[in-house]
Write a structure and sequence with these properties.
- 2 copies of one chain form a homodimer.
- Chain A has about 240 residues and is α+β, with helices and mostly antiparallel strands.
- In chain A, the strands form 2 sheets. Chain A has a 5-stranded antiparallel sheet with strand order 1-10-9-6-7.
- Chain A has 5 helices and 11 strands; from the N terminus they run βββααββββββαααββ.
- The termini of chain A are far apart.
- The mean pLDDT of chain A is about 95.
- The first copy, chain A, is globular and about 50 Å long.
- Chains A and B meet through β1, β2, α1, α5 and β11 of A and β1, β2, α1, α5 and β11 of B.
């Protein structure tokens, strides 16, 4: 099989630094983890928070700590550092080649979509951001790595896209529409969702927005592992 | 401008775990760092070494430590951990948006190619792997971020491709050939170099091989940041 991971990310309009941080790291026992955090508010302060959270999580995952424990530790660390006054959302998606499963760990009220066979369901349960209480725990879902599976999660820039203009976005319907094309790539799904969010915000994103898509497909082609990053920069 | 980072990576033939580790991480003051290590020998032991080295480096970079100091620290940590008996190569390529420069830090005898205006030069100097002495220091080159710049580095799987079969590969000539197409993407360069190495090894890579390409191009298109990962897996 082949795993595709795609990310599309844009900053809040006229803000040079995104408050979202995302890293993809190798797991010590095989596989990968994608870690996404969105620090409270936007700009530099939010970036420092989300970087701290992601660093904490990937440091622990590298030591072999389980995802749920890493999320709790990040919550406690943020609580301690900021006196419970600053929150951050956190999503971890791990491909565990040992257990042959995908583990989704979330402290984020935004939905996580799981699509298979043309159906799109949203993961159940009320999930709270980390950092504001000592009792915060993540919601964890685990599923076998199966060809045809598509997982999508995002920060709240996508959830609230268009809200201020009274044109809220319906990500669930868009997903259903996109998945009619069974060969659509993870990158096309991520790009389409983000493009729709920007459109609902009339070209001026109201918040930082990151979309992550994980897709499992039958292996076609070579056994080369690839990574590709595109980073638009403005050196002023 | 737009920065493209592309990676193509394959394991040694019939070995399930690569001894190479590569991570792309955000820098705390803006920009990205690509960190690549190749642990001595192959398989599980080499993987543990290269993961340890990369973890050490990205942990320090995240704290704002300069690349050269992070490389020295990784060397000393590996020396201490393994009593000087195990070496690892290390390459760090950092896009520092603060200084508007690319910093290349290397402890790797394999060449680093810098291409601009159709010319390809190899960075000078004798560079030693880390971990075997307490006096090891990296070679560091810094250059401004300029449209048209292409940087290529790799692990020794590419250097020795075809050697055992008496058909050594000429990566420099292939680079010159590829860069005749001025619009070639970073991914196409990485894929072509790796494909040629595999061809010289007659389809059975004699070692783990990772190729990293960083390309600076004028900005065309939107300001969306993208990342795409393709991971072929065999769940057995």
């Amino acid at each position: 099989m082949e795993i595709q991971i795609a990310v599309a990310k844009i900053n809040k309009y006229a803000v040079s630094e995104s408050g979202d941080t995302l890293e993809v790291v190798e797991r010590p026992n095989g596989g990968l983890s994608v870690v996404l955090a969105d620090g409270q508010s936007s700009g530099r302060g939010a970036k420092a928070v989300s970087m701290m959270v992601v660093r904490k999580v990937i440091g622990l995952l590298a030591e072999g700590v389980r995802d749920g424990a890493a999320a709790r530790a990040a919550s406690d660390a943020l609580y301690t550092e900021k006196g419970g006054k600053v929150s951050s959302t956190l999503n971890i998606a791990s491909l565990d080649l040992h257990t042959k499963s995908i583990v989704l760990t979330r402290n984020n009220p935004a939905p996580v979509f799981i699509a298979h066979d043309g159906e799109v369901k949203s993961l159940e349960g009320d999930s709270k951001p980390i950092g504001t209480q000592r009792t915060i725990r993540p919601l964890i879902d685990e599923m076998p790595i199966t060809a045809g599976l598509t997982i999508v999660f995002f920060t709240d820039g996508l959830v609230y896209a268009g809200d201020r203009r009274g044109k809220p976005m319906d990500a669930h319907s868009l997903m259903l529409e996109l998945l009619k094309d069974k060969t659509i790539s993870a990158q096309s799904i991520a790009d389409s969702l983000l493009a729709k969010a920007i459109e609902h915000d009339e070209g001026r994103p109201g918040d930082d927005c990151s979309v992550v898509v994980v897709k499992v497909v039958p292996l076609v082609g070579d056994s080369v592992r690839r990574m590709n990053v595109r980073l638009p920069i403005n050196l002023g």
